[in-house]
Each structure stands twice: as structure tokens, then as C-alpha cells.
Amino acid sequence: MNIMKPKRMVVKVGTSTLTHPSGSLDLRSMERLVRVLSDLCGAGHEIILVTSGAIAVGVAHLGLPERPSSLRRKQAAAAVGQCRMMHIYDKLFSEYNRTMAQILLTGEDVEDPVRAEHLRGTFSALLELGVLPVVNENDSVSSAEIETGRHKVLGDNDTLSAIVASLCGADLLVLLSDIDGLYSADPRVDPGAKLLHRVTELTPDILDMAGNPGTWRGTGGMATKLSAAKIALEAGCDMVITNGARPEDLYGIVEGRETGTRFIAKRKAGDQ
Ligand SMILES: Nc1ncnc2c1ncn2[C@@H]1O[C@H](COP(=O)(O)OP(=O)(O)O)[C@@H](O)[C@H]1O
Ligand SMILES: N[C@@H](CCC(=O)OP(=O)(O)O)C(=O)O
């Protein structure tokens, strides 16, 4: 197998990996992830982290009995949770002597060519400076996903991470989920479903495999991950879906080891 070692990569981590079922931050999981990402930066990879979790963490921190149904309350929870998460990330990255930066995006930011160009410049400058950008959707401003559960331009962090990967010319996008990869059907519904190791084309059969999120904390399920795959592959960027419970798998993934499901971009399919 001839998989190029990625120089620039985007890693997206979902709410279910970052939080306990109560919505509180899973500190052990965050610590392991931050350690691996810091180490990969030390090994010469340029990494952008796209993180979910703001709403769930805000709901837990505010002591709300459940995820609110009103948009304004969800946006308020996101504002609280985002601040909590960044505080912990910054503390953890500092332990490994890494500087991080926060970037919050809305659909308009990536749709507008002038803003997109500024963003590209900011990401490159941060990476040149050895900084690790940490990105989330600006949920307190944008209502795209939290209102509808779907995205138009952005709206979920799977799509957001693929847009960021494409914008920054990343070689690899890794989605850390609460499941090992793409199965032939949702294993929570069909226990006989099989894990797919490699996908070279998003055929209608593959797209039909995607089901809904697994828990109240997840947003897009596999459908948004496959939308992300489409954006990444069109940008010539490989994408891997793997289990966020084992962040150490990232070491093997950057070496091209078979882990989870790897979607292989066209320019590389011929090399296999
Ligand atoms: N074909 C499929 N293969 C794997 N998981 C699937 C599939 N269809 C639906 N799912 C569901 O998608 C969930 C992962 O997405 P999601 O709940 O958004 O989590 P996360 O936020 O961790 O990405 C899985 O737990 C699983 O229940
Ligand atoms: N931007 C939202 C998360 C959106 C999202 O896609 O969540 P997830 O399915 O857990 O990756 C938040 O920070 O709560």
C-alpha cells in the first residue's frame, strides 16, 4: 500500500468522544487526544483540530436537565460550553508546550470568497508559527445546524472539518467518532453489519448505508460523514473515520496503516 504521509491534517472530534453521557467533559479522553496531537506536531505534522462539544458541555455546566429545545438557549449553552472547552484544551496543550488558537466559523465565512481567503491566510500563518488551530462552528451566531439538525453550507462539524481541510489544502482528514468506521448498515440497528475498510468511490450503495446519530450528543450520524467524504475527496484529501476512544491509532493512520474506514482520494487511488 502506497499512502503518502500527510504533512497537513485536520482531525475532527465528535461530542460523544469528548464528553460523558451526562455532557460533562471526558477529561481522560481529551488528555489522550491532546497528547497524541501534540506529539504528531512534534513529529512535523501540521494539525488543525475541529472540535464539537460546546452545546453538550454548556448544557452540563449550566446544570440544565436536558438539551434545551429553544434555539436561543442552545446558543447560550454553546457560548458557555465553548469557553469551558477552550479553557481545558489550552491547559492540556500548554502541558505539552503547544500553543493553540481558537477559530469559530459560520457558513458565510467560508462561502464568501474574500472571507475565505482571509481565513486561508490566517490558518497558514498560524501553522507557519507552529500554532495548532482549534475550530468549531460559531454556534452562538449561526443557527444552521442547531436549528434544523441539517446543514446548508456548514451546520455540522463533519462538513465543517471537510471544508477546512479543503480550504487549507490538507492531505488527510480524520473523523474521530464513537464507532470504528463506516459499516454496511448502522450496527445499532443491524448487529450483523460489517466494517468497510476502504472506499474509493461514493456510490449510491455506499451513500445508502448511512443512518442517524447514535446518541443525543451526536449530530450528524454517518450521513454528514459521507457528505464530508465527498468534499474531502473532491479536494484530493483522503478521509478516515475511526474510533475516538483510541486516539493513539492516529500514529498508525498517518503511516497509512489500515484503521477504521479510509476514503481514498482519486489522485491516490491509482497508486494502490
Ligand atoms: N452505516 C453506519 N455505520 C456506522 N455508524 C452508523 C451508520 N449509520 C448510522 N450510524 C451511527 O452513527 C453514529 C456516529 O455518528 P454521531 O452519532 O454523529 O457521532 P459522533 O459525534 O461521535 O461523530 C454511530 O454511533 C452509529 O450509531
Ligand atoms: N458545534 C456543535 C457540534 C456540532 C456537531 O457536528 O456535533 P458532533 O456530531 O458531535 O460532531 C457543538 O460544538 O456543540
What is the H/E order? EHHEHHEHHEHHEEHHEHEH
- Structural shape: globular
Low-confidence stretches: none
- List all distinct small molecules, including ions and cofactors, that are bound in this structure: adenosine-5'-diphosphate, ligand VHF
Adjacency order of strands in the biggest sheet:
3-4-2-1-5-7-8-6
CATH class: Alpha Beta
Compute the CA-based radius of gyration.
17 Å
CA-CA gap between termini? 6 Å
| Beta-strand fraction estimate | 15-25%
Main β sheet profile:
8 strands, mixed
Helix content: 40-55%
- Put simply, the count of helices is 12
- Would you tell me the overall average pLDDT? 90
Let me know the CATH homologous superfamily: Acetylglutamate kinase-like
**Known CATH architecture:** 3-Layer(aba) Sandwich
Q: How many beta strands in the DSSP annotation? A: 8
Total number of distinct structural domains:
1
CATH topology: Carbamate kinase
Kindly name the structural category.
Answer: alpha/beta
Subcellular location: Cytoplasm
Catalytic activity: L-glutamate + ATP = L-glutamyl 5-phosphate + ADP
Pfam families: AA_kinase
Keywords: Amino-acid biosynthesis, ATP-binding, Cytoplasm, Kinase, Nucleotide-binding, Proline biosynthesis, Transferase
Write the layout of secondary structure elements.
Blueprint: E1 8-13, H1 15-18, H2 27-42, E2 46-51, H3 54-61, H4 71-95, E3 100-105, H5 107-111, H6 113-128, E4 132-137, H7 144-148, H8 157-167, E5 172-177, E6 198-199, H9 204-207, H10 221-234, E7 238-243, H11 249-254, E8 261-263, H12 266-269
Parallel strand pairs: 1-2, 1-5, 2-4, 3-4, 5-7, 6-8
Antiparallel strand pairs: 7-8
Bound molecules: adenosine-5'-diphosphate and the ligand N[C@@H](CCC(=O)OP(=O)(O)O)C(=O)O.
